[in-house]
Amino acid sequence: MVEQLRAFLRFLRLNRYASAHTVRAYDSDLSQFLDHIAVSTGVRRTALAPSQLDRTALRTFLAELHRRGQSRATAARKLAAARSFLRYLRREGAIDEDPGALVPTPKRDVRMPAHLSEREMEALLAAPAADTPLGRRDRAILELFYASGLRLSELVGLDIDDVNMSAKVVRVLGKGRRERLVPFNRSTASALRTYIADRATLVNGRKGKPMFVNYSGGRLTTRSVDRLVRKYVAATSTRIGISPHALRHSFATHLLQRGADL
Hints:
This protein is mainly α.
């Protein structure tokens, strides 16, 4: 079963264009699933047969997750990984049926995702210093996050050529390497133009075309942008857990409040 798992992970990486983070998550969840079956059947994981990954194995795996206090969302994610693996095994002819289709998904707890109010967003956007290049860069980052709903990885992956100022759109390479055009508003365009004027000074002749750079001209990392968002949120709001991902929820929530159909 170890070889089948490796083959599946290669399939995700090469055929589904899954990111390294996604492949690691599948590897972790499926390894836990296979370890559970090995323990419950009394055999080593390397000796497991595909036929042992049946409906009973899935149900006892979910029961074990519940016993350990795992959330319903976590259990649902791990079940989804197992289902994907089982569908792959069926397509490859390793099993005759798809037992994952027979096991219901745990109902998730409904919680409102963390987000900022419009007033809090206004304070956040005004927080970066307007008299320094890095402050103006941070303002552009926050404006673009809020106006576009980009993912953190998408924002840090932008190159200068991906930003069309005249059309007010950014070209984004998202999940599955699918390209899309995302519009932004005039306020964001103004912040971006101001930052772009500073960018040449920050880059200082360094090669490459990253849109958002650090003080030495290199591309900002996801960790750096996460830190700066949390820093400004802490300075302007008492909310806990507001991350770049939460700004996506703020973007979507405010659109819904204004009557948009998402």
